[in-house]
Amino acid sequence: MRHPLSAILIVKNEEANIARCLQSIDFADEVVIVDTGSSDRTPDICRSMGCRVYTVEWQGFGPAKQKALAKTRYDWILSIDADEEVSPELRREILETLESPRATAYRLCRVSRYLGRTIRFSGWQNDNPIRLFEKGSCSFNANIVHEAVICPGTAGQLRKILRHYPYPTIAVHMAKIDLYTTLGARTLYLAGKRATPVRALAGGIGRFFKTYFFRLGFLDGREGLALALTAAWSVTLKYLKLWETGQRDASTQPLSITRQLMENDIKLYALSTCIHCKNAKEFLEKCGVEYECVYVDELQGDERQKMVEEIKKINPKLSFPTVIVNGTIIVGFKKDQITEALKQS
Q: In this structure, how many other beta carbons lie within 10 angstroms of the beta carbon of residue 290?
């Protein structure tokens, strides 16, 4: 008996692509859509085609995929993007695989088109992401950008084609580059990386030569040249944004009020924190006693938890009410608690 299948998608303003994608996965036993803020007809199209649609605030690709995964009913998952299409041959291969799976995850052979041309080289020729997997054995990482499936052991490989239509026009490509470079620069900055305009230029030149010559992009014709140029621009722009972030933070106050909120009758201020704080005492001092919460989105994962634990050591009585607003994690400290903590430290 075939294992039932849940398909998951993360979407935002995909009305030009979504119907084609959903028609290609109509063999799935359910389709779960996580919409991150569409302003077009995407959610309506999904509902009209029988999908379950959930609206969430944007927190990154990894967290969005995790939320979609949590909404599924079945153990086997097909993760697909709105600009992708399961070919009829791949459809049959997936259904045959689910009759008697020999692995907990499978890679799909993705073939992409760029400006209407199928790309055979340029570094796109070995594109085999894990997209079919067993939920109990695999999960998504929490990456803001370039999320991936994490699974134990070696994934199997399906041979039929997953069609990919990422960039039908240069304008669409530029818009995606702007988004991905912003997220990429932020990730690098939080990891302690820094850049200069010279680094940005060198990185772009290096990417062009790698894409066009070493990865044989010249064999993809004029589209291959365009792809190499845009790839170079993507790298240059990411490092320019990284440089700009460092310049901006170096020339401004460590803390600045960015938004005022109300939550449980406690006034909260979202503060942009200096990530260079070496310890909890310095962290609290930079917050100042006049504020009632600390915005710690720039402290990621283990770093954030470590800082909270250090502050609790200063004063175990501190409470940490947490809210999420527009994808921002805000950990609150009451003003009198901060004052008391500073006195005792």
A: 9
Q: How far apart are CA 140 and CA 149, in angstroms?
A: 4
The encoded tokens of residue 11 equal: 């979407």
Count of CB atoms situated within 10 Å of the CB of 302 = 8
Look up tokens 């938004």; give the residue: 259
Here the tokens at position 202 are: 């060198």
pLDDT in tens, the chain (345 residues): 899 999 999 999 999 999 999 999 999 999 999 999 999 999 999 999 999 999 998 878 888 999 999 999 999 999 999 999 999 999 999 999 999 999 999 999 999 999 999 999 999 999 999 999 999 899 898 788 788 999 888 899 999 999 999 999 999 999 999 988 988 887 788 777 899 999 999 999 999 999 999 999 999 999 999 999 999 999 999 999 999 988 875 544 333 323 333 332 223 333 333 334 455 555 555 554 344 444 444 445 565 566 666 666 665 655 554 443 333 444 454 445 444 544 554
- Mention every residue, 6+ apart, whose C-beta is less than 8 A from residue 224: 119, 121, 122, 212, 217, 218
Q: Where are the alpha helices (DSSP H) in the chain?
A: 18-24, 42-48, 61-70, 88-99, 170-190, 197-209, 221-250, 280-287, 302-314, 335-344
Does an H or E element contain 86, and which? strand 84-86
